[in-house]
Request: fold
Amino acid sequence: MVLYYAKSVLSNGYQPTVREHMGDVAKCAADYGQEIGAAEAARIAGLFHDFGKYSKKFQEGVLHGMASADHAICGAVFLYLYVRSKPSYFPVLEVISAHHTSLIEYGMLEQFFKSILKSSNRITAPSGKESALTKEEFQSAVKQFKTDFPDFHTFPRLELPYAQDAGNLETMLFTRMLFSCLVDADYSVSIRDEHPDYMETSEQIDFQPEKLLEKLYAKRNAIRRKAGQNCQAVNQIRDELFERCGTMGDLPAGLFTLTAPTGTGKTLALLHFALRHCLATGKKRIIIVLPFLTLAEQNAAVYREIIPNLLVDHSQQDLSDEEREFSARWRVPFILTTSVKFFESLFSNKPADCRKLHSIANSVIIFDEAQSLPPELTTATLRAVNELCRAYHCSMVFSTATQPDFAALPGLDWNPTEMNPDNPKMYQALKRTNLTWMLDRPISFDRIAEEMSKENSVCTIVNLRRHAAALFRKLKDRCPADTVFFLTTDLCMSHRRRIVRQINDRLNSGQPCRVVATQCIEAGVDFDFDVLYRALAPLDSIIQAAGRCNRNGKLTGGGRVLIFEPEDDGRLYPGDFYEAAAMTVKTLSLRHPIDIHDPSQIQEYYQELFRDAKDKKALTEAILNRDFENTDREYQMIGSRGAQVIVPYQRELELYQSICEMARKNGVTPKLLHEAAGILVTVHRSEVLEQFAEPLYFPRKHGERKEAGIYLLRSQYESCYTDGMGLQLPGREPASGFFW
Reply:
């Protein structure tokens, strides 16, 4: 009797056979498949996925500790022989062929299937490797499979969770969900063979919402006591929102929005909804999705006081070995992540990205700052959200102070339940600013600087780093140096945090404080200025900016917010949609003064903005063609991630020198990236950057080295990073400060 092995001998001496491995993966995948309503499809994927290992070529590779042949395509070909006329099996074929590489659309795969079945030679599989089986070798492999799995005979039509009239976006999402079941089962069973306790250590199933609610109520009461009598009106509104969200949590699963002004305690109110909703509907986990790392850090600090086992999962989080497994699988009850990681995973074609997707099913998902969705991805994103709620038993909340009217998008079905329908009363009750629209003619930065110099507590937010630098220099000429501050993403994170502390110290003590900034302060930074100037921008940015004026309501007559259009012959905005949104604001303001405290006027703005809005053409075409690779490429939450420069911030020079030494000696490692996170600056013009900096590389692999997209300033240009304005490279046209 010939034994076919799935792997080389493991460190514990065990060597799993193909029959054992495929049987275990089929069972595990079926369990995961139940979560997405496709247990049988997942079981069949697991049962066939390693069929190609019944080959002499693969077994030779196992014997010598290396597998050079593509076995995945063979399992798909074998199944194809039986189900080629059954479309419900096409997603199963897609995931089997991709479980070590990346998803490819069935129509393209079918060409490979036919070629393998016709050719007596080994053909090149989509992975670029030779297939493990030829036409002649298939017969013996089939015989062995039937010996190992004698009870497997029929291929009935599979019941799949998507609707009969589903579009490509929805069917592609199902394929990724099924892919997730197979990939997670395959990886997990493989690790379990070597580490028998892996399943227990890589997930947490102890989720007790009722106990967490007790801790939440204690936290809320402590905040109320600390706030004191001076905040009675605000406390009353916060209590009202908190209780309202809890009551809404008792409703059946579905799609929700939460619209409430800043300062109303949405963070805890949303947690109240989520925990009550888990109790009412049996949801097994809560996922908090945030657009900015600063918000992730702030909210994580709040949630950790209530949720002891919170998984914070984003690109700059330093994870322990245990947390790294949690991050790969998301088999934990409470996750806080970024919109980049969450939404891009829904459109990915890669095993590592998709592995966690089946764990999203039957979850409560809170998306805070919902207005931050990139416009060129909005329709595709919202269709995916609808499908998560419809087919995968999720409940999702879109929360913001500036709720976009997504129903105005052409061709989109968007019918959420608003959790706070009386929000107009809250906006009026918490009105803390008075807006002046100065858009009849462009205004020079000389004038803005002159007016700022006469104020004690003032901030101007502009759209471009170039504008911030110009205004800051003019303001410095008019004011004492210790009263003027500069905040853009030209400053590394450690530098920005120090400046934020200095600004708040001066504001709290009543000392003169004048700040020039880009949009980086509009989320996650709690400033409180008496006067705020805002360069014309999208309405949500204007409202976010206004939230930094008279934030604590100490000015009885309200703070002053002045909207102006900069005088500049060059480009005024960081992108086309951003400009279109700003022009929509200008058009509406000429019709009537816009009241940012009136949700109906915010709705009017979005209806105007979304009238002709469309996703970017390349993404739409990729989905239309069911092209997984191009969909993955085109769906990017941040259009240009740019290059990152490690900078010599004066207060972190010892760290800088240590990182420089490590980078040149060992290359760019996860440990280095974590330690360097505070002294990185993103530069979007890398072709300019390369004149002033040297590229760093990942550690050598197979004798090759690959650029990491991380740079060090050349020694003669280290002086380009200053304590006043951060990184100012000669000849560099700074981009916006849009992401922080």
